[in-house]
Fold this protein.
Amino acid sequence: MQGLSPAMRGEHWMAIARHTPLGVLCDLDGTLVPFASSPEEARPDADAVTIVEQLAALPGATVAIVSGRPKDWLESFFPGDNVFLVAEHGAFRRGAGAWQNVADLDPSPLLSLADELEALARRHPGALLERKRTTVALHYRNVRRGQRGELLIEAFGIIDRFLARHPAYERLEGVLVVEVRPASVKKSSAVPWLRGLAGAGARLVAIGDDVTDEHMFQVLEPQDESIVVRTSGPRRTAARWELNDSNEVRAVLRYFHGVRRGHTPPPIVLPREIEQPSPQRIVEGRDLLVVSNRLPDFRHVEGDESERKRNVGGLVSALEPALRARGGMWLGWSGRTVADSEHVESGIIDSGTAQLAWLDYRESWYRHYYTGYCNGTLWPLFHSFPSRVTFSDEGWSAYQEVHEELAKVASRLVGPTAMLWAHDYHLLLFAKVMRQRGHTGPMGHFLHIPFPSLDIFSMNPWAAQLLDALLDFDLLGFHTPQHVQNFVACASAMLPAKVAEDVVHHRGRATHVAAMPIGIIPDAFQEPPEASVVEEIEGLMRSLGNSTLVLGVDRLDYTKGIPERLIAFGRLLELFPEWRGKVSLVQVSVPSRADVPLYQEQRATIEAIVGRINGEFGEAAWVPIRYLYRSYAKGQLAELYRAARVGYVTPLRDGMNLVAKEFVAAQDPENPGVLLLSQFAGAAVEMRDAVLTNPYHADGMARDLDRALRMELDERKARHAKLLASVQRSNAVTWAEGFLDALNACR
Ligand code: GDG
């Protein structure tokens, strides 16, 4: 709905003004009330109070004043309870009746901060400290311009020291004010509250000027409207409409009142559509919105630069460069959870790679959706580990609920014709919920894990619903032809769907299915490493002495077959004792889903096996297995890959396995290592020149390892050359472009 003509704009606002129920959320300072030289002087005058009260008195209209001010102050202007009040950004609310304390936080830590800031304010003429129950605000609108910098440097120093000790609070910079307040209390909480009070079918209009008002704008639904008041000049906003000042805000409220009372509206001021496409709505037409559970790099969301927070999953490694090359937006979970009673926040940030749209998860979603249905049901089921699968109704409900929420956010981000690309088992219902919201643009899905056979898949009580929802996509991509065949067999057996070659017809729709094996960016593993990166790896290599290196790198996951790999390495030392003292296994296991009991058990199992083998075979100068439960920087991984004689990649089941491809890319072509690869990794389909092995057969795997260790240079070079050609030909960029071209061609 960008760029309405003046006549359409008039009709649009007339329809909103007439709509019943109508809910209005209006900020005070800078919105309904102009700024004054001090917060005390900025008071709603009789005109402002009358406009609000009159509108609130009309049937079908609900009005809330949503402010950062204290509750008693608000109540002194709006004593009657037909106007609803939200004080201190949502910490207190007054519906029809008494005040509710929503935040219920211990405000005592703020006292000492307030004392310190007050002392600071006394030293800076014009500065004023406002103490509220749950927040403190340092106003500096009356501080001379040239002196504001000095005040703020000191104030931020004090505040940052406080925040380091009290992480439940946050600093928020408003218009000529810095505020410290509980991070969990935001104006966004007023939106669902007022929606509930307004009644079913409500359309909400939120009006505000400040960054705190953006929290309201971000959680509105598609039928709602957001108006930013440009009191403090232009800035980036999630709002769709704008007004200049509080006079225009009052004019709009008077217009609502007039229309609802059946008057012919006088010549009025209507909100103007913001011309610069707002970042909320940039993805239109053939542009791309990628949706996945995790964002590529949620340090940006969390404001934390530590490597620990980097997502090291395979999906990210493959998609990041493709998205960088194409531009577009990526929507996913922020990595944060909020209490179920709190409002779910969402927002947009620029990561440098792409625009990232993030969404917080409720704690119950984390438990029942992420840990539950995604990782407790779909992950083991799709990897054909039925004995590890759990089914729960709560999990399935949460799975649907999170899809609804993501679809709500996505349909605010993009127009109905945008191209959407959803990833993995977390998002199997995504096309269905988007189609229900009227999305008509092309939608594709890529499954990064295997699709199981019918006998396994049909154990899922909701199997038919999943298949039905998947067939709302236009294109379904899988890693291997076997996964495609499994999907098609399930759809034919469980739905009244018809299959013609690579198209599944169902409910009048056609869904294309294809095997599109994912690749890597080979260059990333071939660049000369930086000295700082190499140092730590050189230290590790020195500690191995002259031992030949066998290397395993995985997320710590039971599908990766780490215990089986260790046991087979032990068997190598038994069956071929000549390797004792001459070969060492370094196993890097990146912590993953560490709060899930199954993963904790897996870790304990691995540690016990490492202990047993090292105890049994180790010598004073030789440790058979180095087990490293940590992650490394990409450059360090490349160094490790290069140093290894054997890449020991033996998952029990894997969609693809990028480590196999990265290992090949990193080798020195003149003296390459050997890839020992599980026949059950998707990568085995393309990488026939690896030494393929069966990870369930310890003795067989030990013999294959022995063969890989003994392989002569000529054979190593010949195999590596073929593997490298395939890794280079079919890479991450060709994969992403191939998928998007195929999706385009579906329409
Ligand atoms: C899923 C499917 C499919 C590992 N350790 C570190 C690190 N990594 C990176 C590797 C690689 C990625 O993590 C792991 O990718 P995989 O493909 O092996 O496995 P999953 O995470 O299970 O990925 C899989 C993939 O999706 C893509 O479709 O291949 O089958 O299960 O890129 O390099 N990265 C860093 N430090 C580490 O310590 N930086």
